[in-house]
Every structure is written in structure tokens, then in C-alpha cells.
Amino acid sequence: MSLLDRKGSVPSGEWIGFLDKGVTLEGKIELAGTFRVDCHLKGTIVSNSTVVIGENARVEGEINGNHVVVGGRFEGVLAAKGKVEILAKGVIRGEVRAPCLVIEAGGILDGRCHMTNVEEGKQPLTIPIRAASATPTS
What we know:
single chain; mainly beta; eleven-stranded mixed beta sheet; disordered N terminus
């Protein structure tokens, strides 16, 4: 069961709110707890907790968080201190920096992935990733 369909508490923090579909927002959001985005957002999200990008969301810009779950669309630079999860319907186009990346079957990462080390001072491992084409080449 994913964070997108779970009811109740989330291990990484207390729920503090959400932005639902139908909302368009441009700017910077700083969060102190678990937050869900299901809207169109252009800008920056900063969080010490969990950020959930819901299936209806389209986020462009930058995310700096601890745990980031992507079930919708994200385009830009995503940095996490903990884990980044791309769910089956999730799409990330851009750059991901995190020590842990989990991609469910069907999830898409089109861009660059920097696997950062939790220990300070160590160089990150950079892995270029391209989306697979729908038709095989001969």
C-alpha cells in the first residue's frame, strides 16, 4: 500500500495539509510536516518531512525534502536527504539527488540520477537514465 492511498498516519511525520486538484500555485512552499500536492504547482517546495506528489499533480521547479513520493508528474530538480519513490504512474523529468531511489514498475525517470552518499564528503555516483522507447529499434 503506498502513501497515496493509505489512510491515517505516515511514519515520517504528521500530516499538515494538501493542495487539491483544481488549484494552480506559483511560488515557494516551506513545510514542517507531511504534505500532499495534487495540483499544478510551479516553484519550490522545501520540507524536512515527506512530500507526496499525487497522481493528479503536475509540479515544475525544485523540491528539497527528506522523503519524496511521486505519483504524478514532476519536472525539474528533486533533492532528498532520505528516499525518493516513483510510483507506477509517476513521472520525473529532470534531475534526482538522493541516497535511495525506488522506482515501481511503470514509473518513469527521464533525466539524471545522482546517488548521494549519506556520509558527508563522499562524491555522489551519477547515473544517466533515458526513458525506454515504445517501439523497439532494429
